[in-house]
Each structure stands twice: as C-alpha cells, then as structure tokens.
Specification:
Layout lengths: L7 H14 L5 H10 L3 H10 E2 L4 E2 L11 H15 L4 E2 L4 E2 L8 H4 L5 H11 L6
Antiparallel strand pairs: 1-2, 3-4
Helix pairs in contact: 1-2, 2-4, 2-6, 4-6
Length: 129
C-alpha cells in the first residue's frame, strides 16, 4: 500500500524532512513529519513544532499564534503519535492542554481527517516505507 499525499508539496516536504532528520523508518517521526507537511501553514511553521537539528518537539507550539483549528488538531495528533503527549506537563504536573482535546472526536474533526488517519497508519507500521 502506498502512502497517500495531499499534493506534491506535501510529498516533497515529507521526503525532505525525513532525509534532513535521518530518521529512516522510525514510525514515530514518520507520523509527525507526515502531519507537519499536510498543509501550507504546517509546512511554514514545522520548525516551531519540531527542531530538526536537536531532534526534539516543542509542545508549547500548541499555543502559538499561527495555529488554526485544523493545524492545532494536526499538531496535537502529531505530538501524541510521536511520544504519547496529551497536554500534560510532567515537570509541573499541570494539564496545560485539556486532555479531552485528544479524543478521536476532537483530533479527527476537520477537513484533513483522511490524512490524519494516514499518519496513524504510519505510526503503527501499516505502510511499508
């Protein structure tokens, strides 16, 4: 089964960030990278969510001004697929993003839901890469 991309820009971004990061077939990163390339806004702000040089995510990006209703859902799903994050700060023991925002009803309620499901399939190795 082939991975479905939204358009050429999505596919190019996915290939570029995958090579830049050197992640190989790491399903956690593949799922995140797929979502980071899903739309223009995500591609323009990917480095706010994921630092390719340091290879770390920025969970605070959830609250940044560039986020839209759809991109915040993609970011939440991407962070969750990457490391299981659901809005909880383990250091301060504070729920900084409401846990209910991570329910399937919330994460998949947008026009890019089909591509969000592809990210889930990448994370759980339902595609050969």
């Amino acid at each position: 089964m082939d991975v479905k991309f939204l358009d050429c820009d999505h596919e190019k971004f996915f290939g570029w960030i995958r090579a830049e990061d050197g992640c190989g077939n790491d399903p956690y990163r593949l799922a995140l990278f797929y979502l980071l390339g899903a739309c223009d806004t995500m591609r323009l702000n990917y480095n706010d969510v994921y630092d390719v040089k340091k290879r770390i995510v920025n969970v605070e990006s959830i609250n940044h001004g560039w986020q839209t209703g759809t991109t915040i859902r993609l970011t939440r799903l991407g962070l969750n697929l990457y490391n299981g994050w659901y809005g909880y700060d383990y250091e301060t023991r504070i729920q900084i993003d409401p846990a209910e925002m991570y329910s399937p009803d919330e994460l998949f309620c947008h026009e890019l839901a089909e591509y969000a499901l592809v990210a889930v399939a990448l994370r759980y190795k339902l595609f050969e890469m």
